[in-house]
Write a structure and sequence with these properties.
13 strands, seven-stranded parallel sheet, 16% strand, 12 helices, alpha/beta
Length: 346
């Protein structure tokens, strides 16, 4: 793994970043981790309490924070983002500040560092997937990128890929791009962070939203009948994939971190209702007008061949683990949601 390495995780208090930090602490001897996070959409409680973890609260776009990043890191993971599509539509400027500018300022700071072995950038499968509600094929790493994007979030993510490729070519910065699919699992806190203008501050990704509502006995909302599909990948698998990108990824290249399977939202909802014993059923809602990336899943061929990466956790097994985590942390999640009740009018 990353024994005796010094690791920087930008966005390390978030859902994926905190799980990555915990995995590194458990799997790598002598690893030291620095986490930089402004807690905009994350929670301090996610940060591992360990002598080998140094937490810095603030944005990597802040020059005072950026100055603390010196040439001492073996690996850098750029996971900072403005979560997510709907929040970015509400406030494109905030998305630029927290999604695009974070990557550019970080790369400018580290472009001449000598110790770096790899810089892993977290991209998004929605930025490159074909915009379709009909027949779907696996999105490959070398597929065309469409000019028409659904949100500032997806635009920012692909700009980050452009900068990753540019800084590798121009400055030999050893960047590797990891394209996420729809990540779920323990540790995603509904309502974490500060209000970001829309109910998506609370109801962020579909899986934790469905699980929470099912445990509360609410009907699960199906937009457009739930016929759209996503490639659901467990957070532990994503973290293994990120580590694989750092250790075995080719500098300047890009890899899908995917399960390689598409699951419709209605099927996901049915599984969650079944696993939680929720009898409230479903609530039919109109399709989201901005979302043209209706059906998608990622090809796993390249990442399996070059990284040796295969998603191991079956969707049902992953949902069971996530449901159990949610049950144990329901009071904490309730408190996070309650901070936004006045603005959400819930």
């Amino acid at each position: 793994m990353m024994d005796n390495s010094n690791v920087l995780i930008v966005g390390g208090a978030g859902f994926v970043g905190s799980n990555l930090a915990k995995m590194l602490l458990n799997s790598s001897k002598g690893v030291t981790i620095t986490i930089i996070d402004n807690l905009l959409s994350s929670d301090l409680g996610n940060v591992p309490r360990a002598p080998r973890v140094n937490f810095i609260e603030g944005s990597i776009t802040d020059d005072l924070i950026l100055a603390k990043v010196i040439d001492e890191f073996d690996y850098v993971f750029q996971l900072a983002t403005y979560h997510g599509n709907q929040s970015s539509i509400e406030n494109p400027l905030a998305d630029h500040e927290n999604n695009t500018l974070t990557t550019l300022k970080l790369y400018e700071r580290i472009k001449n560092f000598k110790k770096l072995k790899k810089v892993v950038y977290s991209s998004a499968g929605c930025s490159v997937a074909k915009k379709t509600h009909d027949n779907v094929v696996a999105t490959t790493e070398d597929g065309p990128i469409e000019i028409k994007q659904d949100s500032p979030y997806s635009i920012s993510k692909i700009i980050g890929e452009f900068y990753s490729a540019y800084y590798y070519k121009q400055h030999n910065l050893p960047t590797v791009r990891a394209r996420f699919q729809n990540v779920y699992g323990p540790g995603e806190i509904l309502g974490a962070g500060r209000w970001r203008g829309t109910p998506a501050t609370v109801w962020r990704n579909v899986t934790p939203t469905f699980i929470y509502k099912a445990l509360k006995g609410f009907p699960l909302p199906l937009e457009g009948g739930g016929s759209d599909s996503r490639d659901f990948i467990y957070v532990g698998d994503i973290c293994r994939g990120l580590i694989g990108c750092a250790l075995r990824g080719k500098s300047g290249d890009v890899y899908n971190l995917a399960s390689g399977k598409d699951t419709t939202i209605s099927e996901l909802a049915a599984r969650i209702n079944n696993l939680t014993g929720n009898t409230a059923g479903f609530q039919d809602l109109p399709r989201r007008p901005w979302d043209n990336s209706g059906k998608r899943f990622g090809s796993t061929v390249k990442s399996e061949k070059e990284l040796g990466f295969v998603a191991n956790v079956d969707l049902t097994d992953g949902l069971i683990q996530t449901i159990e985590w949610t049950k144990k942390n329901i009071d904490f999640i309730d408190a996070a949601i309650a901070r936004h009740k006045e603005k959400m009018k819930i």
